Every structure is written in C-alpha cells, then in structure tokens.
Amino acid sequence: MRYETEKTRRRGHADTATDTLARGLGWFSIALGIAEVVAPRALARSLGMKGQEGLIAAYGLREIATGIGILASKDPTPWIWGRVAGDGLDLATLATGLEGNNPKKGNVGIAMAAVAGVTALDVYCAGVLSGESPTPLPPMQDYSDRSGFPRAAEQMRGAASDFEVPRDFRTPEALRPYTQPQAPQHPQPSM
Asked: How is residue 143 annotated by DSSP?
C-alpha cells in the first residue's frame, strides 16, 4: 500500500486507486504470461515469427514472475518498473516482425499498439507509485482552536504596562516632526 505525499491533495491517505491499478496490472501480467507459456506456437504463428516460440515462452515466464511479484509485495513499485522494462523488450522483439516479407505485419502492428497501450499504463502507474510514500505521513496539524497568543486575553491585560521602548527603536529627533499628527489647516477665504 502506498500513501499520498504532501505534494498531493490527500496528504497521508492511502492511494487505493493506484494500488488497485497496480494489482490489476499484476493479474494481467499473470494471464498474459500463462497465454505465452501455454501457446507460444500459436502466438508465433499469428505474428509470423516462427522460430521464436522459446523466446515467447521465456517472456511468458517473465510476465508470470512479475505479476506474482506485484501481487505478493507490499510495495509493487519496483515490479511495475520491471513491467515497463519488459514492455520495452516486448516492443523491440515485436519490431523484428515488421522486417522482411512477413505476411502477418498487420497482426504485429496490432500487437505493438496493444503493448504500447499497456506500456503507457505501466509508466503512469510506476510514476505515481514512485512519487508516493511507503509509510503514511502524519496528518496535518489542526491549529483552528489557537489564537496565536501565549496566554488568554484576560491574563495578558496590563502585561506590557511597564514596557519601555528601547532607544534604537525610537524615532530619531530629526524625523519626529514628520511622525507627529498635524492639525488640519483650513484655508481662509479671501475677501
């Protein structure tokens, strides 16, 4: 469980939305990994990448391990970043299917678009999780019941009656005429 930081709206609260997204990506990773392990030939054939069945099965094992890591850990952040790295590897491998005279280039393009979409989710989730705190932050202090004064007003009345302004705080003699209020001057009407 990750917690929002002072940079977010809900400082110290659990971020259940991102946590839920991370768990969903974990389940998706396991399901995709099982499909790659169970049917590597069918996937390789549909992508026109015959001869890559072993690589697809290995990628499936990676997906399963990453999914289990996401679901089993208290902090899925490093596992989600692992998914981002795996997505980059998947995209690079799929890009090889666009070379030459592959009759299934359309399927490869669709697969690349799907992987790119999931990569965007992975990057978003990893970025949000990386900016959060693994421990809850203390709640904001509530100062609404304070006045800002050290004592109650009744106790402070007359406390400064013996206060004498220090000499260096006083208005210099040369400036005193400018600080004294002057009586308003009324112009005399001329006759």
From this structure: -
Could you tell me the maximum CA-CA distance found in the chain, to the nearest angstrom? Answer: 117
The whole-angstrom separation of Cα 172 and Cα 183 is 22
Phi-psi category of residue 182: left, alpha or beta, with phi > 0 → left and psi -120 to 50 → alpha: beta
In this structure, is the dihedral angle defined by the CA atoms of residues 115, 116, 118 and 119, taken in order, positive or negative?
A: positive
Say what the pTM is.
0.64
127 vs 9, 48, 109, CA distance in Å? Answer: 17, 34, 26
On the 0-12 / 13-18 / 19+ scale of CB atoms within 10 A, 103 is: exposed
SS3 176: helix
Tokens of 141: 């202090």
Structure tokens at 154: 């009744």
What are the φ/ψ torsions at residue 14 (nearest 5 degrees)? Answer: -70, 135
CA distances for 121 relative to 5, 33, 111, 186, angstroms: 21, 17, 16, 77
Q: What is the pLDDT along the chain (191 residues), one digit of tens a residue?
A: 555 555 555 554 556 778 888 999 999 999 999 999 999 999 999 998 888 999 999 999 999 999 999 999 888 889 999 999 999 999 999 999 888 888 898 999 999 999 999 999 999 999 888 877 666 666 667 777 777 788 887 888 888 888 888 878 888 878 877 776 666 666 667 66
